[in-house]
Amino acid sequence: MARRTIACWTVPLAAVLAAAAGCGTETVAARQVAVPVEQRGVTAALVSQRDLPAGFYPAATRRVLTGLKPADPECARLIRVADADDADDLRGTGDVPQAHTAFYQPDVAVSVAEHVYRLPAGGAAAQLKAVRDAVAKCPALEMDTGDGKVKLHRQRLADPKGAKDPVAVRYAQGKGPTRSGLDIVMGRRDDRMMVVAAAGALDMPAAAAMVRAEARAFRKLADARP
Which of 5-19, 185-199, 206-220 has the highest mean pLDDT? Predict the structure, then answer.
């Protein structure tokens, strides 16, 4: 099958938005581990390209927040979990069934990554509580753009529908057409934890594309059988 290479896009705060997530070939980066029975409900929760709004393409990397390395330990914990593409990054979970995928929308400069884990009993709720605590103690994310330090300030997002123990937060900077930042949305259904991280421009079309992609990911989790 022919694959179409897509050029990288560049947006403000390129380090935060991980422009590399927007280049590569049209292939889904998904990881599957453990036995098929345990894996089934995890993989079924992943969105595919056809689940997303028009214009999204599979990305070459599953990490979209790699440019952020906060010095504050609580902010660092939040980014570590939000940008993890392996359960080992969650710490203390062991090798568990998991699945990952990522997409980007070059027309509006948005990257979205989705991570799903089946954790031991009580593990998903414990992870989400720790993340909520980290968000509460992380009012802003600071980064060095090369031209100086920039702060992305915390904003509230609507909780994802159908998810238990939800976490939904946006960190943003700038105004109008130069506004950019990232969304971190998490929640669980039974013992499956979903993490959606999105980064990009936050003007009206880009922000709308982000929110639609996040909503469709959690809708897929709600519909997927355990």
Answer: 185-199
Which residue type occupies 16?
Answer: V
pLDDT above 90 (res 146): no
Check: CB of residue 17 under 8 Å from CB of residue 11: yes
pTM recorded for the entire structure: 0.83
Q: What tokens appear for 113 in the block?
A: 């990554």
Which carries the bigger pLDDT value, residue 147 or residue 105? 105
Q: Which amino acid is at 9?
A: W
Residue 21: name the closest of 69, 62, 82 by CA: 62
**Domain residues for 163?**
5-223
Q: Which helix (H) or strand (E) covers residue 209, if one does?
A: helix 204-223
E strand or H helix that includes residue 15? helix 14-17
Domain count of the fold of the chain: 1
Q: Could you give the CA distance from residue 199 to residue 182 in angstroms, rounded to a whole number?
A: 4
Residue 214: which CATH number?
3.40.1000.70
